[in-house]
Amino acid sequence: MLPAEISLGGVYVPGLLVLAAGLFVLFWLLDGLAGRLGLYRYAWHPPLFRLGLYVCVFGLMGLALLN
User: Fold this and answer.
1) Tally of domains in the chain
2) What is the reported pTM?
3) Per-residue b/e over 30-61, b at no fewer than 16 CB within 10 Å?
4) Would the pLDDT of 1 be above 80?
5) Domain span at 17
6) What is the DSSP string of 10-63?
7) Cα 60 to the chain's mean position, in Å?
């Protein structure tokens, strides 16, 4: 279960902010894989597709850790 707040050096930050920062590494790997496979050729707007992919993965990870 993801804590609501995490103390980093005495400063409390939201747990989802830490999740978002850690998820960026996973997203970077997924983005590189999708680029190598040529999946962005089929996307209407590749930057918007990347944003949507990040939001979907973030939502799934957040739901998985909060439940």
Assistant:
1) 1
2) 0.70
3) ebeebeeeeeeeeeeeeeebbeebbeeebeeb
4) no
5) 5-66
6) TEEEEHHHHHHHHHHHHHHHHHHHHHHHTGGGG-SSHHHHHHHHHHHHHHHHHH
7) 9
Instruction: Report the interhelical angle of 15-37 vs 46-66 (nearest 10°).
Output: 140
Mean pLDDT of 21-46: 89
pLDDT at 36 over 90: yes
Q: Hey, which residues does 11 pair with through a beta bridge?
A: 8
The Cα 32–Cα 38 span in angstroms is: 10
Tokens for 53? 């992919």
For residues 6 and 13, the answer to whether their CB atoms sit within 8 Å is yes
Average pLDDT over residues 23-42: 90
| Average of per-residue pLDDT values in the chain | 85
